[in-house]
Amino acid sequence: MPIAEYTGKGESILVIDDVEQQREAAVEILRQLRYSVNSVPSGEEAVKYLRKRTVDLILLDMIEELSKLNPRCRKPDGF
After folding, report:
1. What does each C-alpha distance from 69 to 7, 17, 25, 32 come to in angstroms?
2. Residue of higher predicted confidence among 32 and 66
3. Contact assessment for residue 9 and residue 57, using Cβ atoms and an 8 Å cutoff
4. Is 69 helix (H, G, I), strand (E, B) or coil?
5. DSSP for residue 10
6. CB–CB of 12/49 below 8 Å?
7. 57 in helix, strand or coil?
8. E strand or H helix at 3, and its extent?
């Protein structure tokens, strides 16, 4: 599929990731695809953000957030 088919129309995306480099990479790629993107480092910050704004899509680091909610969910070795 050509990259042009992934281009947005300004839809808003909130990226949630505790790793700054991953957050920045996701934001850069999505902005190049014409999405309106903001990012936060944690679920707690996302809640604060979403109390004031709405978004069309939330993209989050599931391993990090799930491990905070349930101690049995943890990052695999090497991550």
Report:
1. 33, 15, 25, 33
2. 32
3. no
4. helix
5. S
6. no
7. strand
8. none
- What's the pLDDT tens digit per position in 27-48? 999 999 999 999 999 988 999 9
The CA R_g of the chain, rounded to the nearest whole Å, is: 14
53: tokens are 């704004």
C-alpha–C-alpha distance, residues 76 and 30, integer Å: 27
DSSP, collapsed to helix, strand or coil, labels residue 35 as coil
Q: What does pTM read for this prediction?
A: 0.77
For 2-13, write each residue's pLDDT tens digit.
Answer: 888 899 999 999
User: Which residue is listed with tokens 């309106």?
Assistant: 36
Which residue type sits at 3? I
Q: Which residues contact 21 (CB under 8 A, 6 or more apart)?
A: none
